[in-house]
Amino acid sequence: MLLFAASQLIGHWSVATYGAVLIWLSNGIMAAALLQLHRRPAITVVLACFLINLFSNGIRGDAGMLMWLNAVMNLGEATLAALLARRVCGAALDMRRPRRLFAFGLFAALPAVAATAALGYGVTMLIRQTPLTAAGAFNIYSFVIVELLGLLLVTPVLLLMARAHRFHGTTRARWPEATALIAVMLAVTALTFWQNDAPLGFLCFLPMLLIALRLSPTTTAIALIGLTAVSGVATMTGHGPVHLTRLMDLPGLETVSPMLRRLGVYNLFLLAMVVTVLPVSTVMTERRRLEARLRARTVAAQEARRKAEDASAARSRFLAMMSHEMRTPLNGVAGFADVLASRPGLDATALRQARQIRESSDGLLMLVEDILDFARGDDAVSPEALDLAAVAREATAPSRAAVDAKGLSLTIDDRLPANARFMCDRRALRQTLHPMIANAVKFTEQGEITVRLDRSPDGVCIRVSDTGSGIEPGLLPSLFEAFAQGDASIRRSHCGAGLGLALVARHVRRLNGGIDVDSRPGEGSTFIINLPLPRAADATTETERPAPGIRDDGAGETAAATPRVLVVDDHPVNREVARIMLEAFGCDVVEVCDGQDAIDAVAAQPFDLVLMDVRMPLMDGLEATRRIRALPGPEHDIAVVAMTADAMPEDVARCLASGMNAHMAKPINQAGLLAVVNRALSGDLPDAHVSVDAEAA
To answer: pTM to 2 decimals?
Structure first.
């Protein structure tokens, strides 16, 4: 209300002093009140402004209908502009957005002023019974420009000032720079408008554009008001480039004073300044706001990424620890079950029970591996040149006992070219085939299971077929979902967690392949896997060299030279299991419980093979292997195989990078241990390499 009263006083003073009004501010103030305040306070303020307008009209000398008409026109224009602004600018009325500022000017302020001018001057001409003349048209034009400038300048400024807190951090300039820019603008405006020699009005655009680019819209609008005050006073007192305008001799405008006609030019100058500078300021503020939001979101994304990486690392550490801690006791259970089963003179009942212990431990190991693999997620694959038939044989090994117990036939039909090698991840392929073979054995009571390997147009096709019970059609859509089971009731006849086929689908996806199922209830099932595996160089055929140490001829005979094996493990149960198995093969076994003891033993006496644990309290197996490889003399070439419960892919990579020849995961079995010893004695283990990163570690 105080602003409205002040605007009325300025208007009366301008008319009384100069005979004209540069900008009519009152309606912009009322429109801002209607837009900013709640309904009841807004109505109260607008009614008070209406009464102030009537009072000022009476003081000015308006009488009768004209006194009321002027006040009603002002109230109607402000109300119409506010209603239209609510429609086109949204409920937030956020004039920081360029689109809303343009919408307010084009679809709220301009229609409101045009409608008010048409209605007001139409009523006036009806009352006075006068036609529309050139002078009247000029008066309407002046009215529209003056009123439009008031709405465009005052209403956005008041709304922006009411939301000034939203501009914190969106300006590029500090207060000293802002003060300097406004001072320069006022100085340029004063120099431009207080001279009558040159048309230099365009110079005012330069500092105003700089203000718009560097400062907030609120400050820019205040600067515009300052420019208007300085230039307006100069123009009304007869100074400035506006008075250099050559007026055209237009018929009908003889009664209009030259000052009023030149004020029309000045009003156009101000209108051009407003519609140029304010949108530029809002655009730059919006850009800075978006940049700040982008920076904040970038920081948030980086923090989220860091947390995700930390969580992934923690998950990897947890999975590695759980794998190690679960495999360690299983090594004792499975190992001693093997030892008991191979003990001579054991009666049939004890032999059957020992084998059942071993089968149960194998089942528990498979469940542990399935759970850990499922929790691990989709890791990157590590392709290497593989004999796919050999990997298939590895995948069938855990199911051989169940196949023999049921009297089934388990065959591998290798139709790939002889000595063919394909680039594939060994672990992913083995863990793809193993669950399918285990499922085929589980659900087949008689007949056969066949694993067929053949070429396909884009790689390799692997089929796992059985003559079992088949799969009901209703179960096929959810067959590869985690924990999905054909019979989940408490009366089901088959055990399992329902993770096997879910892991199969995951590993096939990791290998960029596809999987299909062809099954008929009662007739068996066929799982078809198509893998786009690139062909590697074929293997060369070499004459096999006889192992100099152990011969697995079924009679337990050994070569003349007794193999010497060093077992390094801090767990006494693991050492005892390995010693008993190795001694059954005819090996001479030495046991140590720490990495430093292993180094001393290798340096003191010759060994054919070192079975190295990884996790040990004083010196771990990785560091011990690196130091063995650094020994002078022939000791550094000794075969070192990791025999550890650290069985994750990254654990295997660390072992090989430290200089080990191969990796054997716990729990161990006699067949696997015999194969490793034979490969070590025949020189068939891969060459050892110590990576630079491992040496640095």
So the answer is: 0.49
